[in-house]
Each structure stands twice: as C-alpha cells, then as structure tokens.
Specification:
3-stranded mixed beta sheet, 27% strand, 7 strands
Length: 132
C-alpha cells in the first residue's frame, strides 16, 4: 500500500482507523443550489427572473424584490419577508396566479350603462324613435 510522503502513514489505513467512524450520514433531502436575483414588480403584477415571468401580489407593484431561484421553486422576498412562491416555470413562460391581481372594480351606473340599455333595444323601437 502507498505511504503518504509527509505523514509516512498509509492514507487508507489512517482513514479507516481515525476518520471513517466520525463520518455522518448524508441528510435525506439533497442540498439545493439556488441563485438570487433582484426584480422590479411591473404594473401587470409580474417580475422577470431567470427568463420567466412570475406574478406577485398587486400591492407590491413598483417595489424591488429579491428572488430566490431554486431548481423547482422560486421564492419572492421583500425586506426578507416571503411574499410569494411559484413552481419554477420554463424560460419564456408566464406563470400567473390570478389571485395576485386586485379585485375587479365595481362599475357605477353611468351614461355608459344607459347606452348599453339602448343598444339592447329591438331595432324597430330605435327606428321608431328616429322617425318621430
């Protein structure tokens, strides 16, 4: 067996005697390498990270957020607070959660509502009104 040039001991023997019993089992979950990016939330409630668009809750529009891109999941943070997660999308894909958009605005009765009522009138009554 080979002898180490500095210690003058056999590396494999030294490993088995001193180091092998100190080794611990690997964790059950593999370590995930992630990359971090910064992105600004656009008016359409989306950010771009890793070549993909992801929705973020509308209250963060205009804010700059930190994005952790994992292999399977992305996480969006504002001031170290987690604000959104998505499954990782393919490049050039748009990943949207429709709950990130503001609730629909309620329409007030207006002249446009009256005009919509006129548009629903039968053609004959509209024609009669013009003739009068």
């Amino acid at each position: 067996m080979r002898e180490h040039g500095t210690t003058h001991q056999q590396p494999l023997t030294l490993f088995r005697l001193a180091e092998q019993k100190e080794l611990k089992l690997l964790p059950p979950v593999t370590f995930e390498i992630a990359t971090w990016h910064r992105a600004k939330v656009a008016h359409d409630c989306h950010i771009q990270a890793g070549g993909t668009l992801y929705s973020v809750p509308y209250r963060y529009v205009g804010k700059t957020v930190d994005v952790k891109l994992g292999t399977k999941v992305i996480e969006v943070y504002l001031d170290w607070e987690l604000v959104k997660t998505h499954l990782r999308g393919a490049k050039r894909q748009r990943v949207t959660d429709w709950n990130d958009y503001p609730p629909p605005r309620r329409r007030q009765p207006s002249s446009s509502a009256r005009l919509a009522g006129i548009a629903k009138e039968p053609a004959s009554s509209a024609h009669q009104r013009k003739r009068r």
